[in-house]
Amino acid sequence: MDTGNILLIILGVVAGLNIGHDAMYGPQAAFFSELFSTRVRFSGVSIGYQIGSVLGGGLAPLVATALLAAGGGNPVWVVVYFLAVSAITIVATLKSPETKDRALGETELPGEARAEAAAESREPAVAR
User: Fold this and answer.
1) Is 103 helix (H, G, I), strand (E, B) or coil?
2) φ and ψ of 121, to 5 deg
3) Cβ proximity of 61 and 68 under 8 Å
4) How far apart are the first and last CA of the chain?
5) How would you class 91 by CB atoms within 10 Å of its CB: exposed for 0-12, middle for 13-18, buried for 19 or more?
6) Strand blocks (E) in 1-128
7) I want to staple 99 with a disulfide (CB 3.0 to 4.6 A). Which of 15, 18, 34, 71 is the partner?
8) Full-prediction pTM beyond 0.90?
9) Going by C-beta distance under 8 Å and a sequence separation of 6 or more, which residues neighbour residue 109?
């Protein structure tokens, strides 16, 4: 941004938003929705997305400003902060479960809940 050339600045912002941003948001909906069973999908995706927005979008500028001030105007600590946040994102993505062989309607329940759900599904339906 120190170029002083407004055309290069606009080109950089447009390229960053249209390449980097879109490359992230394109697969994000499918990635998030596959992480949750259909019973809790809407809540799971929404809660995760909203908390992430608050922590990433709300606190990041405050932290970056504080780090810039603490560094005496040198942005090295801001870069370190964003590298740390990026590393956390990469690790979380790599640790997320692979869902390509799982049906989207499958419900993954922990041990006892899975046994209870299986028992309930075998019980005959009661007319009301």
Assistant:
1) coil
2) -70, -20
3) no
4) 69
5) exposed
6) none
7) 34
8) no
9) 117
Give the number of other CB atoms < 10 A from CB of residue 15.
10
| Residue 97: both structure tokens together | 């479960």
Rounded Cα gap, residues 90 and 63, in angstroms: 20
Structure tokens at 83: 């590298």
Residue 114, token pair as written in the block? 């899975």
User: What residues does each domain of the chain span?
Assistant: 1-34, 39-95
Residue by residue, pLDDT tens for the chain (128 residues) are 567 789 998 998 898 888 888 888 888 888 888 888 888 888 988 998 899 888 888 889 999 999 999 999 999 999 999 999 989 989 988 998 888 777 766 655 555 555 555 555 555 555 54
